[in-house]
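Researcher: Let's do a round of design. I'm pasting the structure tokens now; please hold your answer until I've finished.
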């Protein structure tokens, strides 16, 4: 994962009021991962968006990784309706 950003400048925040995780770079929103609570105990990630100026720098992967970690830590089952999240989940299952 190539990133020109120091990890200190990158922060992922869970905005539970708006059912999303947000990645900030040096205080500016760089991307959003939206989800739905499709049923009790199940979080369905429905879309991942990284702003064009931040694309290709590994931020989408960092955003998804952090959201998955937090969801699993909460004991939730995770579904990846979003193709990007589905690919990340498949890599996780395959041990990559």
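Researcher: That's everything. Go ahead.
Model: Designed sequence:
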């Amino acid at each position: 994962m190539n990133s020109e950003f120091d990890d200190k400048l990158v922060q992922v925040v869970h905005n539970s009021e708006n059912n999303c995780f947000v990645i900030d770079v040096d205080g500016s929103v760089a991307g959003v991962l939206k989800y739905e609570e499709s049923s009790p105990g199940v979080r369905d990630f429905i879309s991942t968006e990284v702003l064009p100026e931040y694309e290709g720098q590994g931020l989408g992967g960092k955003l998804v990784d952090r959201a998955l970690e937090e969801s699993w830590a909460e004991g939730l089952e995770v579904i990846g309706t979003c193709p990007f999240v589905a690919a990340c989940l498949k890599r996780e299952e395959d041990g990559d």
